[in-house]
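Annex B. Sample input.
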Amino acid sequence: MERNIDMLISEILKFRDERDWKKFHNPKDLAISLNIEAGELLECFQWKNIDEVDLMLNGSEKYKVEDEIADIFVYLLLLCNEINVDIIKVTLNKLKKNSEKYPIEKSKGNSKKYNQL
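Annex B, continued. Sample output.
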């Protein structure tokens, strides 16, 4: 089965609509939910050192991180759908802008912000 963004959005909308949840999915609440889920992803890493993070990501607890990533992505796609944003288009546009702000010759191997290069 081919996997693409349009198919995924359709599945998410079907899931939402079967439960009559669209009434809860306004841009404000979707943005809030997106950030709550991002916080839950951070919680997976909280208080862990690098070795503990590696163990988690290579062990039986990885599903927790995967679930939070999926929740974030679902809310992001719902928000994009609600405000009519083409996630592929805007992401490619942002990559183009970032490539101009962070030219390879100045930014390769460097973590400085564009205005400090």
